[in-house]
């Protein structure tokens, strides 16, 4: 509880910092006055229209990805398992790119990139990809290792389809699609935040409500069945929550890499728990995404997509975890 409260305070501090810093700095007092409805016209433009939607989108995306990663790593009992592994992001990417390229020329692509069309198709692609992985992995039930292996194969095929579409696209279309594919919050608006907020408000409490059953399933299938937990039904429900949370975040900002992988592992080690705590993982994801996006906006002479920064942070951690697990297995 102490660590979770500290993570909440850190997330709030990062929200204020992200709103304050940028090309035009805004003081904390001015931010509070603007949020209370007493700021001047320039502060209202900067805070309410330019920065606050982007910051809220980043916070919600990080929260959704953190919780989704914790759910997947717990249900599979595998620290390397993330929603990316089972093809969720790959399906969303293929759906989004197909929608962009089929939708028309460069003007049409730019206009619908964060509108209702592309996010909806991306979410549908994520759901269909997961359904395919689950169906191919079913053998009288779904085992965690089989789900991961099938997900890697399906994800590779979907990524190949995305690459084919990019090769066949015009330069302007491919450029717009490539920016979306690395994960970016630069086009976030209130239209982006609202559906994401609705999804998080519904799905995160549902995930937290199932924490007790998740703790039992983490002990293994035999023990879970012994205490009366319907293992396959519970696993399907957890995967469904994971997919919906990931689809909501991908639809809002594209596939931001490594947040769902890194956040639960940081939360696990910070709290000293036996499995990734859901709420702490979500708050850790929020902090990681906000920190990465703030660096992407301010540390470079141009606006770098946040997905590039999270990949730079997460990839070395993945390598370290793989090396560490290999040493443990050989000792």
UniProtKB/TrEMBL annotation:
Name of the protein described by the UniProt record: Iron ABC transporter
Keywords: Cell membrane, Membrane, Transmembrane, Transmembrane helix, Transport
Listed GO MF terms: transmembrane transporter activity
Pfam families attached to this UniProt entry: FecCD
InterPro entries: ABC_BtuC-like, ABC_transptr_permease_BtuC
One BP term from GO: siderophore-iron import into cell
Residue spans crossing the bilayer: 55-73, 85-106, 112-135, 147-167, 196-216, 236-263, 304-323
Membrane topology according to the record: Multi-pass membrane protein
UniProt record similarity statement: Belongs to the binding-protein-dependent transport system permease family. FecCD subfamily.
Transferase is among the record's keywords: no
Keyword Cell membrane annotated: yes
Protein location: Cell membrane
Gene Ontology annotations for the cellular component aspect, listed alphabetically: plasma membrane
């Amino acid at each position: 509880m102490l660590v979770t409260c500290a993570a909440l305070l850190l997330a709030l501090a990062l929200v204020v910092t992200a709103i304050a810093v940028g090309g035009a700095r805004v003081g904390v007092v001015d931010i509070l006055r603007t949020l209370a409805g007493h700021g001047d016209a320039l502060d209202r433009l900067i805070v309410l229209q330019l920065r606050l939607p982007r910051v809220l989108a980043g916070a919600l995306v990080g929260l959704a990805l953190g919780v989704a990663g914790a759910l997947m790593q717990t249900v599979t009992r595998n620290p390397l398992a993330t929603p990316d592994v089972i093809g969720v992001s790959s399906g969303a990417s293929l759906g989004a790119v197909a929608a962009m390229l089929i939708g028309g020329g460069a003007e049409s692509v730019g206009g619908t990139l964060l509108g209702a069309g592309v996010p909806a198709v991306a979410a549908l692609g994520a759901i269909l990809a997961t359904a395919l992985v689950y169906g191919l992995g079913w053998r009288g039930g779904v085992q965690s290792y089989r789900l991961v292996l099938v997900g890697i194969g399906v994800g590779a095929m979907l990524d190949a389809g995305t690459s084919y579409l990019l090769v066949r696209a015009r330069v302007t279309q491919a450029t717009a699609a490539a920016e979306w594919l690395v994960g970016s919050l630069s086009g976030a608006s209130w239209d982006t935040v609202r559906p994401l907020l609705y999804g998080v408000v519904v799905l995160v409490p549902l995930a937290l409500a199932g924490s007790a059953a998740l703790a039992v399933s983490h002990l293994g299938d035999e023990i879970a069945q012994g205490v009366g937990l319907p293992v396959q039904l519970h696993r399907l429900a957890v995967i469904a929550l994971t997919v919906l949370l990931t689809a909501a975040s991908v639809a809002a900002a594209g596939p931001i890499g490594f947040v769902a992988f890194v956040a639960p592992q940081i939360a696990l080690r910070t709290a000293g728990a036996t499995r990734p705590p859901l709420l702490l993982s979500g708050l850790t994801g929020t902090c990681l995404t906000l920190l990465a996006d703030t660096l992407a906006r301010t540390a470079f002479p141009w606006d770098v997509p946040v997905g590039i920064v999270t990949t730079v942070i997460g990839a070395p951690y993945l390598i370290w975890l793989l090396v560490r697990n290999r040493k443990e297995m050989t000792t």
